[in-house]
Structure formats: C-alpha cells, structure tokens
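User: Run a structure prediction on this.
Assistant: Running it now.
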Amino acid sequence: MSYSFDCKKALVIALIVGVLPVLGVGLFSELAQRQQSAPSLAAARALGSCFTGSACAFAGESTRFVTLPPGSALPDGAQCAARVRRSPWEARPENTAANHRIPQPVQLRKLYETPRQGGAPAQSLTRVDGNFTGTTDEIIQWGACKWGFDEDLVRAIAMDESHWLQSDAGDWTTDLSLCPPASVSGGGCYQSYGLLQIKYRSYPGTWPMSRDDTAFNVDYKLGYQRACFEGKIKWLREDVPQPGYPTYPNGSEHQMLWGCIGDWYSGDWYDPGAITYIQRVRDELAKRGWERYNPRG
C-alpha cells in the first residue's frame, strides 16, 4: 500500500502519540466515541482518512476541509477565504452572478431579527453573512471550512439538492400563504431555493438572499446544520426516531451528523423521509457526480 505525503505524516504522528495500540476493526467510524487525548484523537482521525481513501488533514496544514467534532473552535469567514483552494474552473457558469453577490446590511439585519429560524437559536446563526465570492466550488469549500464540515459531504448534498445550480427551485405549492414575497407565478410558487434549497416557510428571514446569493445559501444552511450537530435544535428532542436510531441529541458523532443532514430534508429526526434522504446523499457521495463537471477530474 502506498501513502500520500500527508498520510505518511499522519502515520508517524499516530505512532508517536500512541494511537496504533488502539487501532482495530471499525476504528475510523467509531473512534470519536472513545476517550482518547485530543492529540491522539486528531491523529487517529487523520490516519483513518488516509486508509479510507480521502485526503489527510491536520489543523494549520489542511489540504482539504473535514468535519470537526461538536464543540470545536471554528474559523471565521476571513480565515476560510484565505484557505480556499482557488481555481478558475467553474462547474456551473450559470451561477456566476449569484456567486458574486453578497447580502446587503439591511438584509442581514432582517435575518438576525427574524425569530423563527427552523428551531436554531438566534445566537447560533449570528456568524452567517454570506460574505464571500468565488466559483461554485470555492463557495462550497468556504462554507465547509467556516462551519466545520467535510467539503465532499457538502458537494454531495448540493448534488442532490440542486445539481449545483443556484437558480434551482423546488417544493411547488398552490397554497399562496406559503409563498415568498413576489414569487407567485402561474397560480403557485416554489418554496425552496438555491444550491442547498432553503425553504422560505421554515426560514423566512433568509428571503431573498437564499435565492439570490450563493455564498449566503451555503453559509446559512451549514450554520443551521452545525447548530443541529451541536445539539441545539430543542424541538428535535421531542421526535421519536425509527427503531434502531438514537433520540436527539443522544447519538454518536456519526449518527448526529447524518441525522442533522436528514432533518434538513424532512424536518424530523430519523423519520422515514430523513432516512431516505440520507441514503440519497450517501449515494451522491459515493458517485462523486460533481467530478463530471471538472475537466481535470
């Protein structure tokens, strides 16, 4: 077996801090649950990435953005903008205008003053500002970095939600009470908008930024996902999951991550709709369909 340069470093660090003695079957999916020291845990996670085929990453020298555990200190938007791997490649030229539009201060004030944000505490979303411009993939990287999620996971969610099109809209309804302002056409409207499909009814303060600004769309959705991942969506505690799944927020790190991905789709915790959606995202992650947009891929 050959390793990349980063993976060799991961192996050396793992040996130094004593991770190898605890390696075993299922380590890389369940190690987060063990009570290891912070250096050992970080090295083991990085080493696990090497063996599972994804790039290795350590704080301060990351070549890609990976999921950070609940409670982690998160970088700010400016720090992440500096860490994004820039490229002239644009997967979706149709997104160019939205990719270079950022929210106005008055829009952000409205967002922060809107009490209903899908159940996420207001303080969890004060970091949302959509203050980044770039290509579609650069925006995905930036959002993944800012909120501590694996960049390929975000790419896969975007594939399922919109095929990477910021102009995509879904959830057609003829119930005009559910429509965003000035969105009715042909006797109805779409309720969900953008790269990661933000639904107006659930997140009214996001309109029209969710439709118009790609970076805001990614920023907000991942901010909500982080709040969920941190156990801050109180009403999910009342949900009864399908048999075999944990209650919220009592799952492992892995279960919490995927449960929060499913919640975005169904609005519930490991209900049948969420479980189906989770599998769809996993399928997109396995297929890596976004690479077909990339002439280098």
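The chain has twelve helices and three strands.
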